[in-house]
Amino acid sequence: MNLPELLKDKAIKPKLKTETIAQALLDTSLPISQLLTFAQTAKDPEKATCIEAMEFASQKNANLITLDGLEFVISSLAAKAPRVKWESAKVIGNIAHLYPNNLDKAIENLLINSEHTGTVVRWSAAFALGEIIKLKLKKYADLLPSIQNIMEREEKNSIKKIYLAALKKANG
């Protein structure tokens, strides 16, 4: 697959580009390492499409995302572009269970994004933090007070519900 050509092709709708890349990851015709190499230097719109494809693929097969992939999306949480932030958070939520000992920096960045002005960025941070809480790891017990603080200041009930559901599962 020629990733740069696919992403530059204006005749292909963005959703189809994402689905094509995700399918190539799933059928292994596009190695995750090749996607990461391209995405690291791509402009934000292309980077976001690559990360969204990782998110779609990781819903079906989380094991496709390597530790390098996790590290890439963790660093992408600090990007300027909101779409890069929210797609990265969704990937982390999908794969957190595979890398329970590699989430400290992800948590740090997700907590920062939980205060973002963009609703989708905050929703995605809530999703990822919720998945981390559901792991019920003692090392993340100190995350619970932070989640309580976020819930107190969060205006959107849809985001509060994500945290509440995660806390119920973690305590259940």
Structural features, described:
With 172 residues, the protein is mainly α. It has one domain (3-171): Alpha Horseshoe (Leucine-rich Repeat Variant), CATH 1.25.10. Helix content is 70%, strand content 0%. Helix 6 packs parallel to helix 8, helix 7 (104-113) runs antiparallel to helix 8 (119-133) and helix 9 (143-153) packs antiparallel against helix 10. The model has no long low-confidence stretch (mean pLDDT 96).
Shape: globular
What structural class do the secondary elements suggest?
mainly alpha
Roughly what is the average pLDDT, rounded to an integer? 96
**Which architecture name does CATH use?**
Alpha Horseshoe
- How many β strands by DSSP? 0
Q: How would you characterize the largest beta sheet?
A: none
What is the number of helices? 10
CATH class: Mainly Alpha
Q: What radius of gyration results from the CA coordinates?
A: 16 Å
Do you know the CATH topology? Leucine-rich Repeat Variant
Distance between the termini: 45 Å
Portion in helices: over 70%
Number of domains: 1
At the fourth level of CATH, the homologous superfamily is: Leucine-rich Repeat Variant
Secondary-structure element sequence? HHHHHHHHHH
Strand content: under 5%
Q: List unreliable stretches of 5+ residues.
A: none
